[in-house]
Amino acid sequence: DYIDLVLIHSQECEPDEPGAILTCPGKTPGSWQDTWRAMEKAHRQGKVRSLGVSNFETLESMKELLKLATVPVSVLQNYLDLYETSDSLRALCDQNGIKFMAYAMLGSVWMDDGAKKNPILKNAQVLAMSYDRQCTSAQVVLRWGMQLGLVVLARSLNPVHMEINLHASDIHLSDSEMNSLASLSGKGDSADTGQDGQVSDSYPLGFVNAISEDVDVERAAVFAGSDDGRFSAVNASDGHVHWQFKTFHEFGSSCVFSPDAKSIYFATEDKHVYALNVASGKMIWGMEDGDGEGFLATPYLSLNADTIFVGSASGVFFGIDTTSGKQKWRLDREDEIWSKATSTLVGGKEIVFFGTLGQSENFLAVDAASGKVLWERTLQGGVWASPALNSDKTLLYVASQAGIVYCIRVRNGKIAWRYTSEGELKSTPVVSYKEELVYGATPSGRIFVLKSKTGDEVWRYEAGAEIVASSPSLAPNGILVIGLKNNTILALTRAGTKAWSYDTTGEVWGTVSVSTHGLAYIGSVDGYMYAIRLNNGRLEWRTKLATLAASPCIQPTFQYTE
Fold first, then answer.
1. Measured distance CA(224)–CA(548) in Å, rounded
2. CB pairs under 8 A, 24+ apart, for 60-69?
3. Residues 6+ away with beta carbon under 8 Å from 370
4. Which CA distances in Å does 59 have to 80, 88, 252, 492?
5. Cα(27)–Cα(7) distance, integer angstroms
């Protein structure tokens, strides 16, 4: 047995202060030269295969080492990035067969020194190159180092980051791009670290197309985000995966389409809202909430399709331009927002409604154009679920964490009626316009139906299993479908009797997406996307993705509504 590589970490010990490379208690008994001789002895004894040094930052120190060494120096490990490229040291290494191993390439030194913005990963040239390739800026920087002939190190504790960094070898930079990045060397004084308080717009740092096969936009496809950070496009007929878009974090939200179904919008816990091309999965834009805690709510598209509305876990509600991804406005609240918004016209003006998890003033109506709060109400327990509108858009149905379904008047926020159920309601009320009924579900497994005008209960059904956050989905032929925590997809008749059930191999958290083709689509924490026949509950197909807690979505043309 032997150690593959041993490095001297530093030439000397330093005072125990911030930024010190190596500190040693007490007085050290020898010098780095003594350490090198001891390492050579270990090499001769067969205990160590290769020797090297780290943080030898001058030509003089390296030349002294080369004079001393009787065993070849294999590696020099030094700090290197776009602004500090160590050209003379790298040339010396090339001349003497020494591998230059670069650390802190991705901007950590700058951030440790107090930069407000990472000047490496947010560099305009790097971002442009990453955008063109649909890869991360970190991948561009790592690939730049590889093409220089460096051994590149990318420290990370995040498995997703590790996987994405490994794919840096999948891209290639042209000679002109390499020359463009080389022009940054020695210009660290002009690096944009955000110290002036102006953090420039940037593309997001988390995207990789893992699979590349276009979706036929004239045919149905199912889209869903999974806990491994992938957003997948799946053929609705056979479960074939068309493409996957990689982000840095798990998904808790669903998605929404542009009116022409050529763009799709979703938000993730990596602090980004994304717009993708439905056919190719290529990113159109990405908006980053750099100071936030990620997005858990599903985006909502304005009535004229020019704005995306979405709330964040840090309590900010955004209005985002659908064309550019630029923030139009933001409304800062103190409490988490998990609720997907809805909207309608009131007096010719679009009004947006959403809830927060706060214990007071937790349901709001805001002006869609400006984000100005028009009215706010306190609903007992806070609001996790999304609001729903009645057929003539005059009433809102809102489920609260106190187990109460509220019927609220759109114009003024006054409560028309309330229905008291049980538990912290996470299921969104679902309205049947044809029947004038409201369908809801409780965490204990109770499914209930209310008259939309009065709140009177029509019937209830005890499923015998918990419901995490799945909402009832209305389906053709007079049935409704819902997911249960005991791994079951349950279908009921509109009279409140069981129609059929299908057992998956994992808990079902999301809401079923129902198509006009007679299929129900749902993901499970077992990692499978399921397609179930609505007429008999039989499996049409299933496709392995990863843990699926978020609800899937299909293009509006193929989505069943009533």
1. 8
2. 61/11, 62/89, 62/92, 62/93, 63/92, 65/36, 66/96, 68/33, 68/36, 68/37, 69/36, 69/40
3. 329
4. 15, 7, 53, 78
5. 21
CA distance 339 to 345: 20
How is residue 491 written in tokens?
């279908």
User: Strands across the sheet with 255-257, in order?
Assistant: 255-257, 263-267, 272-277, 283-288
Write the DSSP string, 57-69.
-SHHHHHHHHHH-
- Other C-beta atoms lying within 10 Å of the C-beta of residue 454: 11
Neighbour count for residue 391 (Cβ, 10 Å) = 12
Whole-model pTM above 0.90?
no
- Do 261 and 254 touch, CB atoms closer than 8 A? no
Torsion sign (Cα): 463, 467, 473, 475: negative
The contacts of residue 2 (CB under 8 Å, 6+ apart) are 46, 47, 48, 49
Q: Are strands 395-399 and 373-377 parallel, antiparallel or unpaired?
A: unpaired
- Token pair of 551, please? 């609800």
pLDDT tens digits in sequence order for the chain, 562 residues long: 899 999 999 988 777 766 666 777 777 778 899 999 999 999 999 999 999 999 999 999 999 999 999 999 999 999 999 999 999 999 999 999 999 999 999 999 998 888 888 899 888 889 888 877 778 889 999 999 999 999 999 988 877 778 888 889 888 999 999 999 999 999 888 787 765 433 333 334 445 455 567 888 788 999 999 988 889 999 999 999 999 888 767 787 899 999 999 999 999 887 889 999 999 888 888 888 877 888 889 999 999 999 999 999 999 999 999 999 999 999 999 899 999 999 999 999 999 999 999 888 899 999 999 999 999 999 999 999 999 999 999 999 999 999 999 999 999 999 999 999 988 899 999 999 999 999 999 999 999 999 999 999 999 999 999 999 999 999 998 999 999 999 999 999 999 999 999 999 999 999 999 999 999 999 999 999 999 999 999 999 999 999 999 999 999 999 998 8
The residues, ordered by sequence, that sit 6+ positions from 62 with a Cβ below 8 Å of its Cβ are 53, 56, 76, 89, 92, 93
Cα–Cα distance, 481 to 108 (Å, whole number): 49
Name which of 67, 71, 68 is nearest 45 in CA terms: 71
Amino acid identity, residue 280? Answer: S
270 backbone φψ class: left, alpha, beta (φ>0; ψ -120 to 50): alpha
**DSSP assignment string, 76-133:** EEEE--SS---HHHHHHHHHTTPEEEEESTTSHHHHHTT-SS-TTTT-HHHHHHHHHH
Q: Within 10 Å of residue 38's Cβ, how many Cβ atoms?
A: 12
- 3-class secondary structure for 334-368? CCCCCCCCEEEEECCEEEEEEECCCCCCCEEEEEC
Could you tell me which residues are beta bridge partners of residue 224? Answer: 232
The sign of the torsion formed by the CA atoms of 50, 51, 56, 59 equals: negative
Burial degree of 368 (CB within 10 A; 0-12, 13-18, 19+): buried
